[in-house]
Amino acid sequence: MSGPAGVHPAAPAPGGTDTEVTRSTCMSSSAQIGVTGLAVMGRNLARNFARNGYTVAVHNRTAARTHALVEEFGHEGSFVAAETAKEFVAALERPRRLVVMVKAGEPTDAVIEEFAPLLEPGDMIIDGGNAHFADTRRRERALREQGIHFVGMGVSGGEEGALLGPSIMPGGPQESYDSLGPMLEKISAKAKDGSPCVTHVGPDGAGHFVKMVHNGIEYADMQLIGEAYQLLRDVAGYSPAQIADIFRTWNTGRLDSYLIEITAEVLSHVDAATGKPFVDVVVDQAEQKGTGRWTVQIALDLGVPVSGIAEAVFARSLSGHAALREASQGLAGPKPTPMSEAEASAFADRVEQALYASKIVSYTQGFHEIAAGSQEYGWDIDLGAVSAIWRGGCIIRAAFLDRIRAAYDTRGDLPSLLSAETFAREIAEAQDDWREVLIAATRQGVPTPGFAAALAYYDALRAERLPAALTQGQRDYFGAHTYRRVDRDGSFHTLWGGDRSEAPA
Ligand code: NBP
C-alpha cells in the first residue's frame, strides 16, 4: 500500500474498502487495463475503469499528471502508477490492453511508436482519441503486421461521460472485442432499457468513422437548436429566460435530449458580473476541432449529400469571420414585424415542428454517410446497433434514437430514415409549419441555413423531376459529357454546334 514519493498511500475508499495505489515496479502484470494520456478524458476514463473494479495502470508523458491522478482519486479504486513506458507495459496482464487517450494526430503516432516495440503479439492498443478513420486504418494495418491488435475506439460524452459512462464506438478485430468488450460494456453508459451503449462497430476504422459522423450530427443538432433559439428571440420576441422555458417544455416531448436540456440551462444562466443573460455576454464566434469538417469532407468523397451537417460547419465558420461580419454591418434587411403574444406562442409551436423535421433530416443524412462508408470499406455496420449505442452517454443522446433504432429493427435495409413510415408521417404532419417558419425567417431576415437545407433536401428527394436534367443538357452542350434518356438505354450526345441531331455516345 505504500508508494514512492508522489504516489500517496491509499485513503479508505468510500464504502470502507482500502484503496490500492502502487507503482508498477512493486506489483507487476496486475493491471487488467492501462490508460496512457491523462488529460481530462484519459483521467476520467481511467477512474471509470477503476470505479468498476478493474486494476488500472496509468501513465502520462508528463509524470506529474499521473501522480496528480493517484493523489486526488487513488481512493476510488486500484491504480498502478507508471512513470515510464516500460513500467507501464510491465504492469499490464496479458494480453495487454493499452488505452491511448492523447491528442489526436502526431501524438498518437508518437505514443504508438513508443509502446509498440514493447508489446507482444495478441496485445491491444486501443486509441480512444478523436482520430481520423483513415489514420486508424493505416495504424491498424501497420500494427497487424506485428501481431498487435489496434482498436480505433470512438468515445463520446465529454469529460463527464468518460467518468460516468460514455457511449463507446470501438472498431478493430472481432477477436479484440471478445476480450475488451465485457470491460467496455461495464464502463459504458446504459440506455434506459439497461443495455450498454457500446457495440463492436466493425473492422479497422469503422469505430472512428461512426464517431466522426456522430460529431457531424452533433454539429447539425446544435445548429438547428441555435436557429430555433434565434427565431424565438428575433421573430417571436422572447427573452432568453422565456426561451429556456420553451426548451424545457420541448424536452418533455419528442425532442427530449441532452442538447435540448443543456440549451435550457445555458439560456437561463445569468452572468454574475453584469446581470445580463449569459448568452448575451459570450462572443458569438463558434469554434470547431475538426470532426464536423471531416464528416463533410468524407461525405463529399463518398458522394453523400449531408447538406444539413455542411451548413452547420459553414455556419460556425461564418460566425468566426469577424472582419467580414463587421464590414457587412449596415447591409439592407427587412424591418422587424413584432408579434402579439398569441402569435408568438403559435409561432413557437411551429418552430418545434420545424426543428423536429429538420432533425429527422440531419440524422437521415448522417446514417446515409455511415451506410456509404460501410459499403465503401466493407465494414458491414449495423445501423440499428449504432442508433442503439447513441441512446445514452453521448452528446446526441435523445429519446428520438429509440425511434430510429425501432425503424431499423423493423427494416434493416431501410433505404433512408425518411422512408420509415413513422418519420414519413411525422414530417407530413410537420411540413406546413416547417415551411411557414422558413417563410417567416426569410421575411424577417433571420438566417436559418440548417432548417432551409433540411427542407430543400426533403423537397429534392420527393421531387418527381429535378433540374439535374437541365444540368446534363448544359454539360453535354459545353463539354460533350453525354446524357442518358428517360425512354431509351445508353448514353447520347447532341451535336449542339451542328445540326442538333442526336447520336449514341
Ligand atoms: P488533449 O487532446 O488535450 O491531449 C492532451 C494529452 O495528450 C496529454 O496527456 C498530453 O500529455 C498528451 N500528449 C500530447 Br498533447 N502530445 C503527446 C506526445 N507527443 N506523446 C505523448 N503524449 C502526448 O486531451 P483530452 O481533451 O483529454 O482528449 C484526449 C483525446 O480524447 C483526444 O484525442 C480528444 O480528441 C478525444 N476526445 C476528447 C473529448 C473531450 O470532450 N475533451 C471527447 C471525446 C474524445 P502531457 O500531459 O505530457 O502534455
Automatic annotation (TrEMBL):
<dbReference type="InterPro" id="IPR006115">
    <property type="entry name" value="6PGDH_NADP-bd"/>
</dbReference>
<comment type="subunit">
    <text>Homodimer.</text>
</comment>
<dbReference type="InterPro" id="IPR006183">
    <property type="entry name" value="Pgluconate_DH"/>
</dbReference>
<comment type="similarity">
    <text>Belongs to the 6-phosphogluconate dehydrogenase family.</text>
</comment>
<comment type="function">
    <text>Catalyzes the oxidative decarboxylation of 6-phosphogluconate to ribulose 5-phosphate and CO(2), with concomitant reduction of NADP to NADPH.</text>
</comment>
<dbReference type="InterPro" id="IPR008927">
    <property type="entry name" value="6-PGluconate_DH-like_C_sf"/>
</dbReference>
<dbReference type="Pfam" id="PF00393">
    <property type="entry name" value="6PGD"/>
</dbReference>
<dbReference type="InterPro" id="IPR013328">
    <property type="entry name" value="6PGD_dom2"/>
</dbReference>
<feature type="region of interest" description="Disordered">
    <location>
        <begin position="1"/>
        <end position="25"/>
    </location>
</feature>
<dbReference type="InterPro" id="IPR006113">
    <property type="entry name" value="6PGDH_Gnd/GntZ"/>
</dbReference>
<comment type="pathway">
    <text>Carbohydrate degradation; pentose phosphate pathway; D-ribulose 5-phosphate from D-glucose 6-phosphate (oxidative stage): step 3/3.</text>
</comment>
<protein>
    <recommendedName>
        <fullName>6-phosphogluconate dehydrogenase, decarboxylating</fullName>
        <ecNumber>1.1.1.44</ecNumber>
    </recommendedName>
</protein>
<keyword id="KW-0311">Gluconate utilization</keyword>
<dbReference type="InterPro" id="IPR006114">
    <property type="entry name" value="6PGDH_C"/>
</dbReference>
<keyword id="KW-0560">Oxidoreductase</keyword>
<keyword id="KW-0521">NADP</keyword>
<feature type="compositionally biased region" description="Low complexity">
    <location>
        <begin position="1"/>
        <end position="16"/>
    </location>
</feature>
<feature type="domain" description="6-phosphogluconate dehydrogenase C-terminal">
    <location>
        <begin position="207"/>
        <end position="497"/>
    </location>
</feature>
<keyword id="KW-0570">Pentose shunt</keyword>
<dbReference type="InterPro" id="IPR036291">
    <property type="entry name" value="NAD(P)-bd_dom_sf"/>
</dbReference>
<dbReference type="InterPro" id="IPR006184">
    <property type="entry name" value="6PGdom_BS"/>
</dbReference>
<dbReference type="Pfam" id="PF03446">
    <property type="entry name" value="NAD_binding_2"/>
</dbReference>
